Amino acid sequence: xxxxxxxRCVDAHADGVYRFILKNIGDEExxxxxxxxxxxxxxxxxxxxxxEKAKSYLFxxxxxxxxxxxxxxxxxxxxxxAQSDTLTVNHGFSDLQEVLNAALNTLPEIQRVxxxxxxxxxxxxxxxxxxxxxxxxxxxxxxxxxxxxxxxxIGSLDRVI
Length: 161
Hints:
Elements: H1 3-25, H2 28-44, H3 54-83, H4 96-106, H5 109-120, H6 125-132, H7 136-154, H8 157-160
């Protein structure tokens, strides 16, 4: 991949990668860091990547970088959680987007990732499989289970509105 192709890739895919990571992490600063690290890793391997495969490589790298960041954050937050004895839950939602984000956050990580890639970013099943390292049938199963869990969490729209 040439420098010009790399720059075109940055222009074309930076927003999509950021939305994908932000939707899964929920923290703008951490999402920016993950995206920056993903583009940095892609630049280091730019000689080995063809421009046609750049998008897939970028999302795969971003996914793995996000997983590493989540694991690192979990290790750091275990100490904080041990010190916190009480948790408060606020279910007073002001709009549908908040309800959807809260519902997505209840899902296991892999379900949240595949649903975000499919329903928010519009990826086909086979590309989601490439990005996450799952087979196409596993992707379909995780999406189905995630959607069922979201439906059960949200319930009826009357409760939301």
